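DATA CLASS: polypeptide
GOAL: derive structure tokens

***
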Amino acid sequence: MNTKLSLIIVISFNLIASNCYTVKPGPLVIATEGEVWPKPYKRIYSDSFHLINPSDFSFNIVSESCNILTGAISRYKNIIANQTFPHTRKQAKNEEQISSWKKSNFVGYLESLDVILMEPCNDDEIPTISMLEQYEIKIAENASVLAATSVWGILRGLETFSQLLYPAEGHALILNCTFISDFPRYSHRGVLIDTSRHFIPVQKLLKILDALAYNKLNVFHWHITDDQSFPYQSRDFPSLSEKGSYLPTHVYSQSDVAMLIKYAAARGIRVVAEFDTPGNWSSANRKLLQ
């Protein structure tokens, strides 16, 4: 009886196991190469491609310029040169390797991208809800151009350009010949961060702003105060943060706020700071009234 029962259990187990599918380890979605996020309004894609050696690549400003533009170009040159696929940064080993690439739609090494800003920009310019973010990128066999009416469009185009690059075996980076015409469907694209209920250090907020720029979002909705705490240091009412913050170190100074606004503006992001009315200031009011 025991032997029969054991045999039934073994057969049942084998039947169950044979009907179970094995889940492969790794990501459920395979990462794409050279795709743009968010998906651009219009893109014409070619199998022909350039190779880029990050250490030799440059952006050429051929028209209007300002500190916002030069700062953005410096950031993206750094991203391409130092942060994108470090294990692939090497040139072709020999002429035979280059010849094999030529036979498979390789059109040559790309050394620069022309950046054309059509309208002047100011060094202290701040993004607005009506800012123009449209841009065009043309990567052809004999010309590579990023053009936009405003500096905000150039910022979005530089982010798109960085996303077009992907690694090549034995080489640096691949850039397919592509034409992109893009503009946002929504003028307000943002993220709300609540630093009243959960204090977030300034350096973490800067990383969040970088993440917004990588995703072409343009609003940092900063819920800076609420019922739980009052971390903003007011010049006129310093007691609000002195008695309303979680800790004396969990505050945002005037210079912190100014720096965050400037950092965001350099990435085409508006900072919308939200201060709750006194009815929601119990974190400070209870202590101030004592």
